[in-house]
Amino acid sequence: PRYSSVSAAFWEHLRYLGLQDFPCGLGSWNKSRFDAHTCASRSQPGQEEAVLLDEENPEVLLELLRDPHSPWALPPDCSSQDQYLREVVVLSPELVCGSNIFQVIRTLRIVGKGVEEVDEGLLQLQELEELILSANQICRVTSANLPRTLKVLELCCNAVADLQDLCTQAPPQLQHLGLGYNKLCGPSQDKYLTVDFWPNLVSLDLSFNSLTDLLELVSQLSSLQKLRILVLQGNPLALIPTYRGFLVDSLHKLSILDDIHIGPDERHQFQGLARQRELMRSEAQLVVNIGEIKGVPDPSTHQHLEVDSEAPVITYSYSVTYEF
């Protein structure tokens, strides 16, 4: 199923988890633990014991959720956060009433649901710290609709082409921003990747976009004093021969570049490269080696005809075209 907004996908996911059904939620199996008024009104000896006999011990209910062979086990496509929610609701069933459930959700993962809009309904999740929206159809993210408590925002494999709306009121505590496999083009978007918008950013993924201006991008990223992890592979600027050395020497506090740790030896090797701007040529060379071609007949395998043969001669020729 596909949903137009994050909120719609979120509500459907909650229904999928069955938080209001046995062994979660409110029911005869745990009535005494949420109906305090009923418990207080019991006065006849033995009445309370009779009611409790019809209920299930919380540990038994949790075992039904945790046993992989149980009919109530978590579906395999769910996350550890989903399991956590179900167990919390078993121990505190009153959370399924009204908007109480919003107070315990720290992570929200909506992946591959065709979501197009990050709507204001997310603001109900006042304790949300991690929002993962990978593999959807999001073009723009309105930062006013993001909880201010957010620390992780993952938007990998969407269609984000403009960061202006995202940076208008960016979550101030954000530590990781994932924008890999989107449609970002430089240099128009470089100006939004500065400390003015992301004062606490530690990890940034910009891989597999269309960023081309390495010098301008580095001048902006250098303001991110807390940045330790950077992924830029897959962009045209990564084809520049001195790409890695220039980044290592320019961003002194960086620890990991393109998933490869930066050690003292490498940093020493590239020392001073950032000042040699003449090495940053604006063109790149791409070498393609053809290892094997399948599906094309080999002319040499055909039987050679005699010189004086009257049979017609068939000549084979092929051309291969590459489009970049």
Automatic annotation (TrEMBL):
PROSITE patterns reported in the protein's UniProt record: LRR
Record bears the keyword Transcription regulation: no
SUPFAM superfamilies (UniProt xref): Outer arm dynein light chain 1 (SSF52075)
Entry keyword set: Leucine-rich repeat, Repeat
Keyword Nucleus attributed: no
GO CC terms of this entry: cytoplasm
Entry-linked InterPro entries: Leu-rich_rpt, LRR_dom_sf
Entry superkingdom: Eukaryota
Protein name: LRC43 protein
Organism expressing this protein natively: Psilopogon haemacephalus
Lineage: Eukaryota, Metazoa, Chordata, Craniata, Vertebrata
Gene: Lrrc43
